[in-house]
Design goal:
Elements lengths: L9 H12 L4 E7 L10 H5 L4 E7 L6 H13 L3 E4 L11 H8 L1 H9 L7 E6 L6 H9 L4 E4 L9 E4 L4 E5 L11 H10 L9 H15 L3 H6 L7 H11 L3 E2 L3 E2 L1 H13 L16
Parallel strand pairs: 1-2, 1-4, 2-3, 4-7
Antiparallel strand pairs: 5-6, 6-7, 8-9
Helix pairs in contact: 8-10, 8-11, 10-11
Length: 283
């Protein structure tokens, strides 16, 4: 498959982020635990290089536990604070506040030396589409959060959310998109649902998933769908269509429907805990 996805507004988004960077102490970056590198916006490290950094491995419940631990170690060795979270169910959310305080320890101590007491840590939450940023903000803020209004110098419409007396979040939804040239990155983003399916061939995409599963998680598709993994990828897809009664006109196999079913099962963790990229590939 060839992925052509260069969204517009990158320049505008980068400029907005640069302006907001002046106002914050910490960048909280959400990545998808199944593709922790491919789901990172390459602009973040450059723009946030002078700020404290926290990486959240979101949707960690959908990824392999062992690989979640390996990715945590990988990022910590590069100087990031890292937390495994499951924003949808609240997993790991309670530990966020402590990690924020630890990540900004130097800033807090510097404020205290200057006689500045009780100034909250200001954090910007960033993440690519479909990585769960809004769900995370809602889970972290809960019902107790209050919008504190626009701060001087903030781009109009940006809202600060006061979590408590110690932390304020800058909510800047939907402005950061990855720009990629590596087709493997495009494939992985498509598999987790970060690229609109209208521009994709879902049968080819499902075939790529089947190929990856057979190579890295042998036996799991056979167990889930009762197929023969020795068959080629499209035959496997046809077998999934047959086992799940994906039919058109009575008896013709509907492989497009089967492809959508397979992708939906993967994205929602109904096949197994699956990680699509491994730390060893990036060392």
């Amino acid at each position: 498959m060839h992925f052509q996805w260069y969204p517009g507004h990158m320049t505008k988004a980068k400029r907005m982020m640069q302006e907001n960077m002046k106002l914050i102490d910490l960048v909280i970056e959400l990545v998808d635990a199944r593709i922790p590198i491919s789901s990172r916006n390459p602009e973040i490290d450059e723009l946030g290089r002078s700020k404290a950094r926290v990486i959240l491995l979101n949707k960690s419940d959908l990824a392999q536990d062992r690989l979640n631990d390996e990715w945590t170690k990988y990022f910590r060795e590069k100087g990031y604070s890292v937390i495994k979270v499951n924003s949808r169910k609240g997993g790991g959310i309670k530990s966020i506040q402590g990690v924020i305080q630890e990540a900004c320890k130097e800033k807090i101590e510097r404020d205290q030396r200057r006689g500045i007491l009780n100034r909250p840590v200001r954090a910007m939450v960033v993440g690519i589409p479909n990585v769960g940023k809004s769900t995370f903000i809602n889970a972290l803020a809960g019902k107790a959060c209050t919008k504190t209004g626009n701060k001087p110098g903030v781009t109009k419409g940006k809202q600060w959310i006061r979590l408590n007396k110690n932390v304020e979040l800058l909510d800047t939804p939907g402005i950061l998109w990855p720009k990629f040239e590596d087709q493997t990155v495009g494939l992985r983003l498509a598999l987790i649902g970060s690229i609109k399916e209208e521009i994709l061939n879902v049968e080819e995409l499902a075939g790529e998933l089947i190929s990856f599963m057979k190579a890295n998680y042998a036996g799991i598709l056979a167990k889930k769908y009762g197929i023969n993994e020795e068959d080629d990828d499209f035959e496997c897809l046809k077998s999934i269509a047959k086992s799940r009664h994906c039919l058109v006109r009575g008896s013709v196999l509907d492989t497009e429907k089967a492809a959508r079913l397979l992708l939906d099962d993967f994205r929602n963790g109904r096949i197994d805990k699956i990680t699509l990229e491994f730390p060893g590939d990036y060392e």
